[in-house]
Amino acid sequence: MTGEDKLGSKKGTFNISDAVQTKLANNNQSVTHTSSGLTPSGTSKSWSFNWTAPEAGSGEITFFAALNAADGNNRTSGDVIYISKLSLNENTSSGVHGLHLDENIFKVYQTLDPNTLIVDFSEQDQDLRSIRIFDMTGKMLVSRNVSGFGQGPESLNIQDLNPNIYLIQIQTDKNLFSKKILINK
Q: For the whole model, what pTM was predicted?
């Protein structure tokens, strides 16, 4: 995790709140996990740290994160790399209360079958309408219409997709959610 201004300069100060799970990296300008911070609890893993905003007048700060959801088979098949960013203006209210981050709305993962992608949408109060996958040029490659309030996982056939980075979009009756995914086969 790192925080940068529009010119790519590292901004703010990271402070480690759990030295067993996390550590500073990149000349103390970013946070990563330690070797003890790898093991998930069930099917997920989270880390905590503190960040102090830079001086007033620094402008918009964008946080970048890259996460590897590995299946533990010591191969790249079945692993998914999540890349995410969040931009905040310095004039916003303190904290991120009420902010809806896409990463918490749906999960995407490959099964043991490399041609199947699972999309698990968890918002019980939103009617799922469609799932679409785009390449990085914006061309829609997969589209599936669905219907239901926070129902179980949906599976998508991705046999025609090559290993690459894609954008997946979830359309509901209230919102459009998206994130980048890496498909490995």
A: 0.47
